[in-house]
Amino acid sequence: MIEFGLDGCEKNSKDFSEYGNHLSKDSVIASWDQAAALYAGSALIAPEGKSAPTTTGNLYYHLVHELAEEFGAMEVDPNTNQSVSIINRKVMENFKAGKSALERSDCDGEVRTSYYKITHHMKAPWIQGILKSTFEFSNYHYDTVEDRETQ
After folding, report:
1. Radius of gyration of the CA atoms of the chain, in A
2. How far is CA 58 from CA 62, 64, 116, in A?
3. Dihedral, CA atoms, 117, 121, 126, 127, nearest 10 degrees?
4. Model confidence over 67-80: pLDDT tens digits?
5. Residue-wise burial string across 30-46, b where 16 or more C-beta atoms lie within 10 A, e elsewhere
6. 46: left (phi over 0), alpha (psi -120 to 50) or beta
7. Mean pLDDT, rounded, of the chain
8. Mean pLDDT of all residues in 44-61
9. pLDDT class for 12, splitting at 50, 70, 90?
């Protein structure tokens, strides 16, 4: 979806009106918004009656938050005084910056930079997930010769 937004931004600078509106600026921005929504899910929506976003979810935002807690990659949000994942903050900032650049048709500048920053920042949770899985699987106890002899 982000790549569609990036490619669509470049194509939108040309006149594609005869091909319909599938490459219009609105659809390009909508694609970028869909990518941000897929990343965040409902994690950023505050439940009714609460001022802070929910701490549950199954999409990337929540998974990155859980890994950040386990690896100590958290910071305090000055607005809410709650711990937030450094990666989530940076990724969401880049989604916002990219959308703003799409609205200005700054295809080769901030949109491309935001795209690369988002994919770059996502490498940290991927590596954290691999390290966590490797650690969990390394603690698996195999039957050893000594274990079989004592049985």
Report:
1. 21
2. 6, 10, 24
3. 120
4. 999 999 999 988 88
5. ebbeebbeebbbebeee
6. beta
7. 77
8. 60
9. low
Nearest to 115 by CA among 30, 4, 19, 20: 4
Q: Give the end-to-end CA distance of the chain in Å, rounded to a whole number.
A: 57
Alpha helices in the chain (DSSP H): 2-12, 25-40, 60-71, 86-103, 112-121, 123-138, 145-150
Q: How far is CA 101 from CA 6, 53, 88, 94, in A?
A: 10, 26, 20, 10
Query: Model pTM?
Result: 0.72
Tell me the DSSP string of 37-59.
Answer: HHHHTTTTSPPTT-SSPPS--SS
SS3 36: helix
Q: Which of 105, 75, 72, 67 is nearest to 93 (CA)?
A: 75
What is the distance between the alpha carbons of residues 89 and 21, in angstroms, rounded to a whole number?
A: 33
Predicted pLDDT at 13: 56
Work out the angle between the directed axes of helices 86-103 and 112-121 (0-180°, nearest 10). 160
Quote the CA–CA distance of 24 and 9 in Å, as a whole number: 9
